[in-house]
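Fold it.
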Amino acid sequence: MKALRLLLFFASLSLCASSSDAYTLLTDGQANRALATLNQQVAANPRDAHAHNLLCRVFYQEERWDNAVSECEHAVALDSRNSNYQLWLGRAYGQKADHSSFVTAAGLAPKVRTAFEKAVQLDPKNVEARCDLSEFYIEAPPFMGGGSDKAVAQAEALAQYDPAAAHWLRARVAEHRKQLDVAEAEYKKAIEADRDPAERLFDLASFYRRMGRLNDMEQTINRLSASPPQNGAALFDAASLLLRSGRNFPGAIDLFRRYLASNNKGELGPAFQAYYRLGVLLEKIGDATAAAEAHRKALELASDYAPAQMALRRLQNARVQNGN
């Protein structure tokens, strides 16, 4: 019996270690390895809500929305009182809605709102949940439960937990209401209120892009990149913004390379997406060989990531057609 107890003890340690390893793999953007680890955990314990939640988040990174929704629904079914599980369920529903027909999106909208509202109810200090719920209130029409007044109420609640986030939210509301001077001032207050302002500088740069003020956008990104941010994902976000804006491709390439070389990556800036976007940029500046290599590196980390698969296939077909 003693031997059996020891065996069970070490088995439980192994499961804990694998859960920790899976989260590290997730944040490092190593989707293939994270999925292998998590699938083993779920096979050993189908009622492991944490493993289902992490699976959802890997599928979310890979933009496999149906899989993400399914796994997040499993996590919430197993533990409906976990605020973060509700948050990620809302995010998965939201992304599926964004990539669906209007009819499907309209059907998903109440589920998005319900999940985010439950996340806030379960943990009023969950800043990410309040921010995501507020974005829903701002973007959704009233018949889907939206309304900027509801977002204002969230800003007041946020002020006691995260003043910078509260300023950001006030900026989003003002921007939605076309009060652009107020919005710009609030984005700047968010920068001043945050001890690590990189994310808030990105928010201001994104505002300038939406306003068509692309020179101001680039200047703000230059501020962000001038000193190493504590939040490394800000480099990923800034590079992605340059790519979407069609501006300063060499600068975007440098930011992606800095991000990939850093030890401070973020879950919402997975390394395989950084490699893929780097490949897109390299192709745009005419370096097809380096672009293909970047896409291969993306697929080494996430073999099911469809955008990298399609990009590499296109480059390979072009090379065959050109006789190379």
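The first helix runs from residue 2 to 28.
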